[in-house]
Amino acid sequence: MKRFALVWKPEAAQLADEVRARLEQLGLEMEAQMEACDALIAIGGDGTILEAARVALPHGKPVLGINAGRLGFLAGLERRELAQLQRLAADDYELEHRMLLRAEVWQGERRVAEGLCLNDAVVARHGVSHTVEVQVDCGDEVIAYRGDGVIFATPTGSTAYNFAAGGPVVEAKIESILLTPVCNHRLFTRTIVFSESTQFSVEINSHGLALNIDAQPPVALEPGQRVTICRAECKAAFIRLKPGGFLQILNEKMGGRI
Q1: Is the domain of 124 the same as that of 223?
Q2: Is 46 labeled as catalytic in the residue annotation?
Q3: 17, 38, 46, 140: which one is catalytic?
Q4: What is the pLDDT of residues 169-199, one digit of tens each?
Q5: Model pTM?
Q6: Domain of 60?
């Protein structure tokens, strides 16, 4: 890899300058166009890296995340590890492919919205203060939840909203789909881990619900619509420059609390 595009948030501008300077010292080139670069470097928190992955995906480009936020579960490097960038010049890196979910909103036979999820797709209450009923068709049976909504998470997203809602952390290489209720007003509040081939459907029977895809602006849902969730055919690619297994990374991000 010799050519890189950089993206960053304004608050990470100083770190972006440091990264650019190091890449130039290594004889690597900066590109403004996605078509011309070999990879995209995203400097910021998980939100910035998620956004970069969405930009890179249609072009088939991998992403290297450099953490300038808090946890940075998607980041391949911390700001103190910029010396590792020399591995890019030496082509000494690994590509890690992460499964995605495809979320679609249907009005009868017409698809009215769609999106790819690296972390999660969430069907949750929107603009109302009361609990909502969400019935999830898992193919074999229907599970009814009443609360704030439900999370459909990838293993990558298991450390995001799913984790905050009490769901388990799943190693990214174990391809699966996690169904986690949010503030369920019933006795069963546990996450269910499904096969990656499971296809889900949620019938929208009332107002006050929305679909959120990777924390993007919500898509308001109307009665009579249907939300479908399944594994996407494509995958996102991330660059890994340093050694470290799943538990080591998790331990670092959680501050040694596991």
Answers
A1: yes
A2: yes
A3: 46
A4: 999 999 999 999 999 988 788 999 999 999 9
A5: 0.92
A6: 3-93+241-253
